[in-house]
Amino acid sequence: MLLAVDDKISRLYQLCLAGVTNCVLVACTWDEWHHAFGHLNMKSLHYLKTHNIVNGLEVHNRNADLYQCKACLAGKSHVQPFSHKSQRKYTEIGEMTYTDLFGKVDQKGPCGEHYFISFTDAAKAHSCVNFLKTKEANVVLDAIKKYVTFIFTQTGKKVKCFCFDSSKEYINQEVLDWLKLQGINYKITAPKSSAQNGIAECLNRTVIECTHSMLASASLSLFLWPEAVQYEFYLKNICPTHALHDNITPYEAFWNHKSNVSNVEEFGAKVWVLIQNKHINKLQPKAKQHIFVGLGEHSHAYQYYNQETWQILTSQNVTFEKPQTRADRSFQFNQAPPPNVLLLPLLEKEKEYISHPNKLQVDPEMLPTPSTPQVPPLHAYYTS
Ligand SMILES: [Zn+2]
Questions:
Q1: Strands 270-274, 12-13: parallel, antiparallel or unpaired by DSSP?
Q2: Cα 95–Cα 99–Cα 102 angle in degrees, nearest 5
């Protein structure tokens, strides 16, 4: 029986089907991009697309509005565009770097992390993050040294000045002595005294809000918080920002080429990873299901979480399993926020929940023990 007639290209027939000519085969809906971009607000997402700021942002079902995202509702916010309002305009990489430390996060990360420190270049709005086990002087100094080396190696520019918030005790004499020795200036600002010193702090808060939504949306263990934060920083660099005017992302401003977002997937998505073991039995499955937990800024490899070994691994040979319906998203919306938010330093809006303890249905028995070296997956948190 003849089904269709069309052009033959090499050994394949290209079919043009009436009525579906606008269908993009490799594409996502706005809803899927909202999840993939770590719950980025729709205004920024539309801006990325309409101004052609990144490559690979294909959208089908363009006119369909985003349904009300329950993970965002639970966080009580759609994440606003990253705003950088500084009084002075910086033009060169390294001229000014805003930095801030976040923590302590009670739940230990896969490598024992309890803190993260962010660095944002004022000229390019490009941010980097480092995870720390403690906030001892030598640990903080080590993270600062790594950033200074990264900037010099990648751009040939020297870091000339850091801006710290004086309310944080992590900037100690050892750090200041090293900066002086290197000829690096520093500016210590009083908390909330200027628009500038709030930039790094605001960034860290925004990242944590997105991290809440990402972990809750995928019903993942809090133990993966550093991976979610790392991915959120990656996403932040490929999203629009008010700090840059020429319709470019921080990524493009820093690296001088457009980012390609075609490999951006939702944090916590189910991913099938090719088993690369030569001794595998031919009748055994060739791939195994794991959880996607991020991308490196310059890595073509996908990071995934192996639930059996509790390891974070990388692979280039992966296939993403697309949810069949929205109902497949495992997030369960209850009166109470996801239990993981209780383990992070509280945001103003979360304090409200604490003042109404009867709303909380957290079984203390279910909470992870901070001293446990490796915490098993806690999917049970969200499924009851
Ligand atoms: Zn959302």
A1: unpaired
A2: 170
Q: What number is the average pLDDT over the span 79-94?
A: 66
For residue 68, give Cα distances in angstroms to 31, 46, 112, 265, 300.
Answer: 9, 17, 35, 20, 32
Output the CA 324–ligand 1 centroid distance in Å: 18
Give the Å distance between the CA of 41 and the centre of ligand 1.
Answer: 8
- Token readout for 23 is 């269908």
- Return the structure tokens found at 231: 């991915």
Rounded distance between C-alpha atoms, residue 154 and residue 150, angstroms: 6
Q: What is the pLDDT of residues 2-11, one digit of tens each?
A: 444 444 444 4
Tell me the one-letter amino acid at 259.
S
**189, 197 contact by CB (below 8 A):** yes
Q: How many angstroms does the Cα of residue 331 sit away from the middle of ligand 1?
A: 11
Q: What is the pLDDT of residues 130-183, one digit of tens each?
A: 999 999 989 999 999 999 999 999 999 999 999 987 766 778 889 999 999 999
Task: Quote the pTM value.
Answer: 0.72
Ligand 1 centre and the CA of 64: distance in Å? 16
Distance CA 8, CA 355 (A): 68
| Strand extents, DSSP E, the chain | 8-9, 12-13, 97-102, 115-121, 127-132, 161-165, 185-189, 270-274, 287-295, 302-306, 311-315, 318-320
CA dist., res. 363 & res. 67, Å (int): 31
Q: Do β-strands 97-102 and 12-13 pair in parallel, antiparallel, or remain unpaired?
A: unpaired
